[in-house]
Amino acid sequence: MRATILHATRDIRLEEVPDPTILRPTDAIVRVTATCVCGSDLWPYRGINEVRSPRAIGHEMVGIVEEVGPEVRTVRPGQFVIAPFRYSCGECAHCRAGVHTSCVRGGQGWGGLDGDGEPTPACQGEIVRVPFADGTLVATPEVPDDAMLPSMLALSDVMATGWHCAVAAGVQPGETVVVVGDGAVGLSAVLAASRLGAGRVVAMSRHEPRQAVAREFGATDVVAERGDEGAERIRELTDGVGADRVLECVGTGDSMSQAFASARPGGTVGFVGVPHGVEVPIGTMFRSNIGLAGGVAPVRAYLEQLRDDVLAGEIDPGKVFDLTLPLDQVAEAYAAMDERRAIKVMLRP
Amino acid sequence: MRATILHATRDIRLEEVPDPTILRPTDAIVRVTATCVCGSDLWPYRGINEVRSPRAIGHEMVGIVEEVGPEVRTVRPGQFVIAPFRYSCGECAHCRAGVHTSCVRGGQGWGGLDGDGEPTPACQGEIVRVPFADGTLVATPEVPDDAMLPSMLALSDVMATGWHCAVAAGVQPGETVVVVGDGAVGLSAVLAASRLGAGRVVAMSRHEPRQAVAREFGATDVVAERGDEGAERIRELTDGVGADRVLECVGTGDSMSQAFASARPGGTVGFVGVPHGVEVPIGTMFRSNIGLAGGVAPVRAYLEQLRDDVLAGEIDPGKVFDLTLPLDQVAEAYAAMDERRAIKVMLRP
């Protein structure tokens, strides 16, 4: 089969690799229907995270189950399934508590070694071996048509991550929510805040196509300013009080500062961007009672609910995909996202 | 009247100062029945916070209303009142949201300039001018007897602060809670967690008298170890999982590290110690989805409920006072707390 391998900074290639096979009785083999490029894939692609040796990459996919191990109970060949960006056993204390990303058997995740030291394929390829299929995959009642593919694929990471940000921040009906970051996760966080009943959702974005998606997702206001000016605009919009919840969906020091500068006393900052150079302003948190919650999203905990919301037409998170390419153009997919020509690129094997 | 003035590091004196008088129609004058020394008073006393010029000190008191301004509606002369460690207008957006410590009219607090630039007395004295009496003070139905004084006085700061820590951390019935810090606030946090229904409350303390109070307050386990050993003991007590909630009641870098090392993935650290040299481990928070919430406690938000709990005999937070001295021995009170000869000292004018 073919799979995407990151060789070095900006050197990404689709290559022939051996087909994965069932290694354990809890495994499933899934043929990928669609996969995509994540903003976090750009960290190693850009060389900000070092690439020491060639590695398989990609952690988002939907597909059709081809084969299951003898102990798999909840999915069967022929079913369409959504895979979270981390696999999880579903049975340890952390999985049972809904923190599947801390699964004690989760190993290094897609493309790394699993808990037994066996390599797992990554998701930007044609076929994936899924460890702990029961604890990882969620199936749909029927195979969805192509129109629904983007929204199902969005649940694999970005929509569930935006949702986690809003849930971790504690968004309540009627509240004012500011979203920092207009990438696919930030836009998904706008949709999540809106779906959770926020009365006002302010998207901080200066890119018109992204502003348009934010408004489709329920943003009531758009603030194009950043830094001190951005914080001042948020104060103006909130009668000088600040936002009840701020969803930080980038992960840089600047975006975290923007988030804290936008929050009201007693408010909460939710965060889901992988932190790079973030210093938490503990003095501000103390003086103003601003909480900080979030982290790597336990997608599996939300997946059934979000799948049902997509099937019911309540949310349409697939709108974050503004470009679809065949898998053999994966290098162009990375370049398009790197250069911000695309919000998020779907890849079809 | 006499009031406590901090002149320089470890130079604390009771001195004659002018009696305060009503300055604004929303003021009240309160004659102090009891006041006390706070752990946070030790920061300037020890010279860790610089003392640039002599300043009145103390922010906890209960007393009898002597006089009220013409606009005061909720308290009247002769009533026994509890004063939170910050005064608050009760009417601004932050007060209405229950974050009274961010009151826009709160000025510098007791002993500093008020919102109009007028000095306010501090609380370790005989008479206090209370700005915004309606938004600040909470009265009891009757004047309590001396036996109840310590518990009423504890509501002024430490009990409400421990309560805030537990509430901010989101303690739920049945959960496992670890308390870092065995000062009066830490012990109060044990009581708060217990009152909120925690199934297991682990007090981290190596001082026997404090361990004893912790057990009286509902601690089910005591861990004397600190650092890596302390974290290992918490893991042992929780089947390797960690605590659902950790209440950080000190404010140092070491205590915050201890807190994060004790929390389970998906758990929350509550914090109420004034941060001194704290670096928040944002990478750990991200990877393990551990939240951080708390800050300077908005005592006024909890005061009616806690007063009723004391009156009903549900809680007895006054046990944190293990020494009572006349106000003219205030220097000895500071020394006793500084040298950890006393957990918390009550002063009677």
From TrEMBL, chains A, B:
<dbReference type="InterPro" id="IPR002328">
    <property type="entry name" value="ADH_Zn_CS"/>
</dbReference>
<dbReference type="InterPro" id="IPR020843">
    <property type="entry name" value="ER"/>
</dbReference>
<dbReference type="InterPro" id="IPR013154">
    <property type="entry name" value="ADH-like_N"/>
</dbReference>
<dbReference type="InterPro" id="IPR011032">
    <property type="entry name" value="GroES-like_sf"/>
</dbReference>
<dbReference type="Pfam" id="PF00107">
    <property type="entry name" value="ADH_zinc_N"/>
</dbReference>
<dbReference type="Pfam" id="PF08240">
    <property type="entry name" value="ADH_N"/>
</dbReference>
<keyword id="KW-0560">Oxidoreductase</keyword>
<comment type="similarity">
    <text>Belongs to the zinc-containing alcohol dehydrogenase family.</text>
</comment>
<dbReference type="GO" id="GO:0016491">
    <property type="term" value="F:oxidoreductase activity"/>
</dbReference>
<protein>
    <submittedName>
        <fullName>Threonine dehydrogenase-like Zn-dependent dehydrogenase</fullName>
    </submittedName>
</protein>
<dbReference type="GO" id="GO:0008270">
    <property type="term" value="F:zinc ion binding"/>
</dbReference>
<keyword id="KW-0479">Metal-binding</keyword>
<dbReference type="InterPro" id="IPR013149">
    <property type="entry name" value="ADH-like_C"/>
</dbReference>
<dbReference type="InterPro" id="IPR036291">
    <property type="entry name" value="NAD(P)-bd_dom_sf"/>
</dbReference>
<keyword id="KW-0862">Zinc</keyword>
<feature type="domain" description="Enoyl reductase (ER)">
    <location>
        <begin position="7"/>
        <end position="347"/>
    </location>
</feature>
